Amino acid sequence: MREFIENFVQPHFNYWAYVIIMMIGLWALIAKRNLIKKLIGMSIFQTAIILFYVSLGVKDGATIPIAPHHVAGDHADAHDSEHAESHDDHKAHPKPVADDYSNPLPHVLMLTAIVVGVATLGVALAVSQSLFKDFGTLEEDEILEQIKSGDYYD
Amino acid sequence: MIDQFPVIIVLSPMFGALLVGLFGARNHSVCFPVAIGALTISLIGAVVTAKRVFTTGPVDYFLGGWDAGKIVEGVEIPLGFGIQLRVDHLNALLLVVIAIAVLLVSIFAIRRQSEQDTEKTHYFYALFLMLSTGLFGMTITADAFNLFVLVEVSSLTSYGLIAMGSSPRGTHAAFNYVIMGTVGASFYLLGVGYLYMKTGTLNMIAIHDILHMNNEVGNAIFDSRSITVAFILILIGMWIKMAFFPLHGWLPNAYSYCPSSTSCVLAPLMTKVSVYVMIRMMVTVFGLDWVFQHFDWSNVVVWLAVIAILAGSAFALAQNQLKKMLCYLIVAEVGYMVGGAWVADSGRWGLTGSLYHILADALMTLCLFLTAGILTRRAGVKNLTDLDGMFKKMPLTMTGFIVGALGMIGVPPTCGFFSKFYLIRGGIDSGHWEFVVALLISSLVNAVLFFRIFEIAFFGKKPAEGHGHHHDEDDTAADAIVPTEPGLRSLAPLWITAALIVALGLMNGSVVEFIRQTPGLILESPVKAN
Predict the structure, then answer these.
(1) B162-175: per-residue pLDDT in tens?
(2) CB-based contacts of A23: which residues, under 8 Å, 6+ apart?
(3) When you count CB atoms within 10 A of the terminal residue's CB, does the N or C end of chain B come out lower?
(4) How far is A151 from chain B (nearest CA, A)?
(5) What is the set of domains in chain A, with CATH numbers?
(6) For position B188, what pLDDT does the model report?
(7) pLDDT of res. B389
(8) Which of B175, B186, B196 minimises the CB distance to A49?
């Protein structure tokens, strides 16, 4: 067991963390019968993926991807740090090395994914509000019962 | 100008949606011209770009001028810096079909929208145009993450469109669709994360190049288990989106309880574009040699497709409602396309048939759903029995229905016959006889289904009594709505679709030849046949 943890869990703990969080979300999605609880599960599910992406950008001993002032010359913007080796006109100063900075791209992608997640949650809440108006409840079982009872054939 | 057309296809409906959203609330008459105008521009763009592909080969477009290989201040821009749009033989015709379908549905929707409560008109058109943006974008983009965003754009708008209807069951179906759709898109995103982790790029072509590099590092990535995981996650995500059989639960209710103008655009396009995304992933991102030789699960997937076809047909046979029946037919058709893509015959006829069937099925489904929309609206048809004697009452509408139905069965001049022909050829070449049998059974079931409808509509419920003469008297018990032919704005889209079904069937040779020029579809050194 100890060997398993040392060899398999510890070096990959970020993956274990995201998979566990994701499964919690998936369980809530499937097993919970209250619509709002389902939506909470959906958010947890999406957040787990965001955590996974954020952990992709991490490197050992690296810092935030903002180039120090003396290397941030005319061309080397912050997002350029990975490719800054190709700039030869900064001979006076040490060139920024990509290994010193964590990868900002997954983080930027996740900004988009967070926006998408917020939009999805907004739509889902609006739909559940409309469901509450129609059925007077947010419990899936009661809604299904009302549908089965034939009041809402259309 | 001609160089900018790929991006105009996507942006034109997006700006149309903005205009409708801004001005449509005050003045509803703005909505319709803006929608038609924006979608016409997209159609022109799609046709022009398809023509360019036909004459000069694949067209690449980089947003923001980040062209790969361009030299900026002494540094060459590598592939994958800007978002790339790519139109090649795989998606050029699909773009045209999407553009035609959304344009026809937007024409079809005018009367419907102005008859229903007008408060929602501008919401409908804004969402409809954003949905078109999402569908065009999913088809045209060559960036894996961009694809995720556009999948969500089209999904979010379709949740809204489905929930807009007056039926509470439609709202409930929309909620289930939100949950399933989000899970599907999240799986796709996770898969892209694994791809990015191993290759360090999001550009589809760059991912392919890195996967297939011929050095030590490249081979290590080619054999990597992370890539396999990425492929499986993307596949599952897309299967949920396309309603592949065990994951189809959200589709029938969502598409049958929503307003008919919504079902007309969602049913033909949403699932087909998802199938296209799966094939794009197989052909352009992972490469067919990786999919079929390195990671060969084709037997399993073909069997899943066989089950999907048979289950979809069986469920369709059990339905009494017209729209529900059509929805289950979509589930069966998705089985055709997935199975065709995975039969892995060396001549790639299955994959070709599946790509051709995407176009054919989009048109046939559009035709059937347009008819169903007209029949629901003008004659109050909900169940199959309501179609009693409909050929006499609405002959013009039912003519369109016949063409769509014959296409679904697979009668020669229509495109449905030729797509089945190529799919079956792929099945025979690869030795997947179970797929061939499932296709034939499904065709038989379709024949039974539609000839049952023809019988009801021609001869009435009680054929022994009627012989088509006494129906006018029988009608009194039916719905209060007296069936009348709709106006030209409903009939014209239907007839154009019917004509296109036949035209696509007649032109099958050249269409298939065009599709088969897709880079990477047919390997240069063909593998020996099994």
Answers:
(1) 888 778 888 888 99
(2) none
(3) N
(4) 10
(5) 1-57+104-154 (1.10.287.3510), 60-102 (no CATH)
(6) 94
(7) 75
(8) B186
Residue of A nearest to B187 (CA): A49
Domain count, chain B: 3
Distance in angstroms (rounded) separating the CA atoms of residues B444 and B248: 22
Rounded to an integer, the average pLDDT of A73-98 is: 54
In terms of residue numbers, what domain contains B197? Answer: 143-296
Same domain, B342 and B484: yes
Last residue of a domain, one of B106, B139, B172: B139
Find the length of chain A: 154
CB A65 within 8 A of CB A104: yes
Provide the 10 A C-beta neighbour count for residue A13. Answer: 12
Encoded tokens for B105: 């549905």
Could you tell me if B439 and B346 lie in one domain? yes
In the chain, the amino acid numbered B162 is I
Helix runs in B251-297, H state only: 251-256, 260-280, 288-289
Among the ranges B109-118, B294-303, B435-444, which has the highest mean pLDDT value? Answer: B435-444
C-alpha dihedral sign at A136, B177, A28, A49: negative
B254, B161 Cβ separation under 8 angstroms: no
Residues B1, B110 within the same domain: yes
Last residue of a domain, one of B296, B321, B337: B296
Q: Identify which has the larger pLDDT, A49 or A81.
A: A49
Give yes or no: residues B29 and B18 share one domain: yes
Looking at the structure, tell me whether residues B292 and B303 fall in a common domain: no
Q: Is B190 on the interface with A (CB under 8 A)?
A: yes
Q: For testing the chain A interface, which of B143, B155, B172 should be mutated: the one with the most A CBs within 10 Å?
A: B172
